[in-house]
Write a structure and sequence with these properties.
By secondary structure, the protein is an alpha/beta fold. The protein contains 28 helices and 22 strands. The strands form five sheets. It has a five-stranded antiparallel sheet. It is elongated.
Amino acid sequence: MTDLADRVKALEGVLSSVDQGVAAFDENLVLVAWNDRFRELREYPDHLIFEGQKFETLMRFDAERGEFGEGDIDAIVEERVAVARRFRPHALERRRPDGAYIEIKGGPLPGGGFVSTYSDITERVRARQQLLQQMEDLKEARQETLRMMTEAEANRRRAEDLREKAESATKAKDSFLATMSHEIRTPMNGVVGMIDLLTQTRLDQDQRQMATTIRESALALLTIINDILDFSKIEAGKMDLEEIPVSLQEIVDGVGETMGPNACAKSLSLVTYCDPEIPRHVLGDQVRLRQILFNLLGNAVKFTEAGQVTLRADLVDIRDNHARVLYRIDDQGIGMTKEQVARLFQPFEQADTTTTRRFGGTGLGLTIVRRLVDLMGGRIAVDSLPGEGSRFTVHLDHALAGDASPENDTVLGGVRVLCVLPGDVFQGQVYSRYLEPHGAQVEITGHPEDALERASCAAAKGKAFDVVAIGLGVAEPQKAELLETIRQGKDLRRTGFLVERRSSDIATLAEQAGITNVAATPLTRRNLVQAISVAAGRTAPIDADVTSQVSYAQREAPSVDEAVANHELVLVVEDNKTNQDVIQRQLRLLGFQSEIAEDGEAGLAAIRSGRHAIVLTDVNMPKMDGLEMTAQVRRAEAAHGRRLPIIAITANAMQGEVRRCLDAGMDDFLTKPLEMEKLKGLLHRWLPHVLAEQVQALSDEAAGSSGRANDAGPIDRSALVEIFGDDDETISEILSDFVDPAWESIAEAEAAVAAKDSGQVAAACHKLKSSSRAVGANALSDLCQRLEKAGSANDWTVINAEFSNLQSLMSDIADYIDQA
């Protein structure tokens, strides 16, 4: 025992510096050695640790304080003592009640008993637990990743399946739209085409009115069809916008002129304005921009019963190579409530359910406008009050197309203009903004009664007005009085007059010397500048082009042999019997002969005969369609270099159809139903020699008529008799009023000849040509026409040869009128 105690004490001295707790028990399980770390780790009180302390006592202390968990204390102690008596190697970890972890390791001592070491492994266990948790988290993350990858693959497969289904649905929708377009437009071609042909036949007044009503109804139906197709194209994402150079001035003017007749029919004032500061060309889609403005302006006219409708385009600024333009459409119509405005751009909605019954329409127009504006990257807004009207604003950015400078020149340089425009401040601004960039000096007065005084004062100061412009706002009696009063002014005899007229009245007005009438509903920049230039004597008036006088039936259609000989025979490749009949009738009415092929195979055989000057072909036909037929023709032409014009005529109005036809080798495109004017323009574009012959025939006929009239004397009174009947007094008065202004025009022409100013010769002779034709002085008119033409061409050989006849011919006319 003494040796053992000595060894234990020696061991105790060694282990006192060890960080681990150490305790030794003899074969009787009595404490024989320990260090302080043992007592600290096991948290035994000092009185409990002494040499000879029983192992059982220490275990009971531990059990009572919960060191071994819950359970029967005696049983726990008995179990611990029994395990210790085995004196075997041992190693274990135990969680203590305070959450700390302790590691116990040991083994038997020689001769009996055991020794154990005690270590605080709380940090190590927690690190291990954290590592295990991280490993578990990693495992879960891996499993979640695998799950997500599996789900993503499933989603990809579902997405691919949905994409295929969507593409299939889109193709089906495209096919349906194309079929609908074709199937609806094909019968519409028969309806509209036959109505156009019917109106060219002999009809009484009631029949013509009924035909007109049918045509308007058919075109209204076609508009609805187009709206639905456009809406469907936008919804399907098939609406592509062009980016080509366009003139906003021409677009605004064109939209206004198209709506002019509708406004005139309701006695509305229609004003259009395009800011001259806008660059002359920008990039955009002309068709879709026109569609936006036409829809908005059309609605403004439709929903306005009285007052004024305005379309204007103003330049906001130019930055980043883009012109920002504000389009504004104002009306004085029925207006809308806030609730009506809120649903205004919804498909198939109109502001009021009674609107459709009262004004018609599908309610799609504004939805299409909204979608088009969105596609263009712009924005649209509306302000409206019930009973006061509406204002629509559209903001669009247009990329510049080359030079950003506005379209200005000095064609009116130095021309002084007095504008009489009562009660319309904006119209005065239009005159100033349109004319001043061209060099004119513009003064505005809103009081007609002040016009004479202002004109006289200006003349007295040597700054006479070259032109007095009289607006629509001046009443007709006051207008006539103003014209007569100014004409009588001593210093105002050379003043020209511009008179605004409703567009619907222009065609029925007789020409009056010194007065230039201009269409003012709307007043376009092009027409205003030209009219001022004419009124000021700067340029000769532009007569209606002689080509526009060629009506649908200017000549009989030639025989087939004659058409072949003149290289003008038309081949129509069309499978629909109704369309065959309509197109042949339209061509015959336009003076063209044609032959029919019922499908692409027959068309190809006919083309190979070499008899035809142009081909009009449907696209979708049995046996061989128009695209394949054209492709075969182009391949055959590659050998000899000649190219036959092939024109597509199709009822498919879907976007991309034009490109498909052109890519196949076609040269041009017309959409069914064929409109006579468009068909005529296309034929004249591709067969210009036929147009030239028609124009020459018309000119020869006019010259023959003039010659026959001239045989009767210097004045052919039939033109005046047709207008005034047997009212000889009025006719004599008109002829008398013709003489003095005619001598003045001759004096102007003489001065121009003396000054060698051929342009002024042309201008003076044009005025005299028009007025002399109006009173039946046809020989004088013909002479002036020749002089005008020579002056415009600076042909002094003709001027010198012909001008000497002007005085004598006018003297004969004056003598005739004096004796009448």
